[in-house]
Design a protein that fits this description.
Elements: H1 2-33, E1 38-40, H2 48-63, H3 73-77, H4 81-85, E2 96-101, E3 104-109, H5 112-120, H6 147-157, H7 163-186, E4 194-197, H8 200-217, H9 252-259, H10 265-269, H11 272-277, H12 281-309, H13 321-335, H14 348-379, H15 381-395, H16 405-413, H17 416-427, E5 433-438, E6 443-447, E7 450-454, E8 459-464, H18 465-468, H19 507-510, E9 513-514, E10 517-518, H20 549-566, E11 567-571, H21 579-583, H22 587-606, E12 609-611, E13 613-615, E14 623-627
Parallel strand pairs: 1-2, 3-8
Antiparallel strand pairs: 2-3, 4-14, 5-8, 6-7, 9-10, 11-14, 12-13
The chain binds protoporphyrin IX containing FE.
Protoporphyrin IX containing FE is lined by residues 127, 142-143, 154, 212, 216, 357-358, 361-362, 365-366, 369, 429-431, 434-435, 538-540, 544, 546-548, 551-552.
Binding site for heme: 546
Protein name: Cytochrome P450 monooxygenase-like protein
Cofactor: heme
Length: 638
Amino acid sequence: MISYLFLAFSSYLVYTLVNRVISLRRNIALANAWGLPYVVLPLQEVGIIRSALVGLFVLPFLRLFPFTENWIWPKFMDPFTHWRYLRKYISNFGDYYVTLSPNSFHFASINAEINAQIANRRTDFEKPVEIYKIVNVFGRNTLSSDGPDWKRQRKIISPGFSERNNARVWELGLSQGQKMLEYWASKEGSSVIEMNVGNTALDTATLALHIICGAGFGIPQIWPNEDESALGDKKWAGLNTKKPAEGHKLTFKESLVSATSPQIIWLGIFPEWVLRKSPFKVHQKLLAARDDCMFYFKELIEQKRRYRRLGHEQDATDLISPLVKASDDAELVKAEGKGASQDEGLTEDEITGNTFVIMFAGHETTANVLHFSFLFLAINLAAQRHLQSDIDDIVGTRPSSSWSYQVDMRNLFNSMVGGVLHETLRIIPPVVHVPKINRGGLKQLSVDGKTISIPGNGTYIHLESTTLHRSRRYYPYSPSKVTDCSDDLDDFVPERWLQKTPNPPPEEMSNKQVDGLEVASFEVHGSLFRPIKGAYMPFSEGPRACPGRRFAEVEVTAVLASVFKQYSIELDVRMWVSDEELDKMSKEQKRDVYAKAQDRARKLIRGSQMMFTLKIEGDQVPVRFVKRGKERFADLEE
Ligand code: HEM
């Protein structure tokens, strides 16, 4: 009996092995036939969970064997190889290449011409929605849909991203920037002159959450040092009070924080009924947060409905009211017997799904840009001084409460403030690559005057932003002042975005609408360097580009300008010397100690890990915000 079992098992193994060898040879032949440079891998995975498993188990296992250090293929098995190794290994292959294994054929591009074609041919190159299932925990949504389903949802959410909404983001960005400073000043050991902040990521996350709640949902939020009376008549139990609504464990803010944490991955691994029976606290806490969050979403949606019924619809500038309106209008059409409402509205499940996705996609991304901008400016004091001088030139001595969206936003965006925003997104984009899939037949693309073919039948495509954004082909550069590299494309140099002559308005801006959105006035006749199409991809491009791009740009511009108008940021060097010791130091000694802090901060930023977006895990970079004029390292500017 045992020998029969053994025979059956060995036959199965041999069959599988032979099959794999045949498909690998076929994939290699395909790559050769189409002249695509390739790397062979034993396996490659896509999707948040599967690629996390490779990153957490397979690669660390290989690293246990020192002889694998010089092997190239494990580097390409890393789902985030472009961030991890930047240009190091990719440069062997040129602007595009294929990674293939017995059961997969993936195409990666760091070429602007290719990216622009792929991103704009939506039906040829679809979104691999199966890898976004995890964001369906609150219902179906635009991020995880494709085809007509996506088109319908996108048409409904887009009008919310209007100039009226951007203006609201502007006001909130300015006021929340101030409130974050007040919160820091209120903490023990800090004052309005000098604030110690151990981890800016936590507070930029709170700030971004407040802005998405305020401008996205119409629910103002308060900082821990603020009193609920600051909410005036906009105080709603649980939605923005310090205590949860009756019968709930968490407030809206707390439940949002949990529901968007990496723990959410459990809901993608196990069905809900399994998690409900799980003895682990982490699973029970996650489900409780999910349930509370769903309760608050429903409350919020009901609130928008009531508001509409009271006839206040015209005043609504948030992103959720258009979803509710579309669903109510479709219901009305249905009730009147005029038919096909499902082609126009959203189901209740889609309203909660999209509410969550707007929050999820818009919160952490923007918070990260602010966090890394702060750190880069603390490292690069000369750039910070240039930023402050531009802010002073634009807003003078006017208080931030009087800065206008129409004029000041445009001017700040086209100055070093916009330079810092673009440079941070260039170096460390929160979304490191844009995935696509070719489900159909062979597709042709033109590149550098040649035609290349992309095989079909489920070829995954990765448009890799981190390496693309470091290409000498697309970005102005000079020799690095930080390393011995002959270009500074790995360094934070926001000045590279400033140019003397304004750009002509881009083609699509001359139409009244961009992707269904109103023209954003601050980009028309902008003077910042404008990379060619497909070369700058933090927000993706084409019909599936981020609808929240302007929301994020306005938010970051407002917060940076309001903070740096009054304060400077410096790395906290107390890990090496006390304040008293520092006061007695010569300029050279101060330069040395600051260099240590810069070096440590650069290393920690480079070590950022992908947890939905790039984040510094573990040790953080402590900083100090000091009133302008009170800087300790003002004389060190490079
Ligand atoms: C710096 C901040 C941001 C970055 C870097 C960013 C980046 C992106 C990228 C790359 C995509 C395309 C993803 C893909 O195709 O796989 C995307 C989609 C999306 N983003 Fe953003 N985003 C940002 C801010 C925002 C904000 C503030 C909002 C909302 C308030 C938002 C809402 C969305 C939504 C709803 C989608 C899905 C669109 C669709 O598939 O139709 N994003 N974002």
